[in-house]
Amino acid sequence: YAKYIALSDDFKDLNISAVDLKELKNIQKNLQKIIDKKQFKNNYIIYKSLAFNYLFDKNTDKAIEFIKKAMNLWPKDKIANDYYILFSIHYFINNDTIAALSVIDEKIKYNSDLHLKKSGDYVLKGNVLLQKQDFMGAEKAYNDALLIEQTTNAYLGLSIKHIWDKNFAEANKYINKAYDVDKEYYLTYALFG
Description:
It is a single chain. The relative contact order is 0.06. Helix 3 packs antiparallel against helix 4. The model is unreliable at 1-9 (pLDDT under 50). The chain is elongated, with a radius of gyration of 20 Å. The chain has 193 residues and is mainly alpha-helical. It has eleven helices and no strands.
């Protein structure tokens, strides 16, 4: 199915041929048979495969169901990417910011419990809150990211927040902090962001 991904920047606009759609249905049936027959001790990869199959089939409810089943079978310190998959389904495909925020909050909690805090999780949360125009929430999330590490994305998020507030001096201050952290990233962002 890589041919479809290569042709589409937006997963929601993905159009699968009738032949490939029929094959997807066959794959789904075969994977379900493997689960029903208990052929594997741990069905993590089977559930995850089904989740992606249902994504291609545009059945996001089933995709969410099976990615969650997969996540329940895998050690919590190893499922960071699965959280991003679940987040992406909610945020980018379903346009459900509330569910997306719930997923990222759950990931933040698990990582905190495991002492694996990641600044990127807080930046992601800040970006969603900023998009929702929850400026206070976004600012808190970006500042939480900065408590973990100095990151250009958090500084740039704070800069955008202050641009929304029309506080250009403060926005410029955060752009300069982003530049101080990573001059190359900052220049790339300035040119292409």
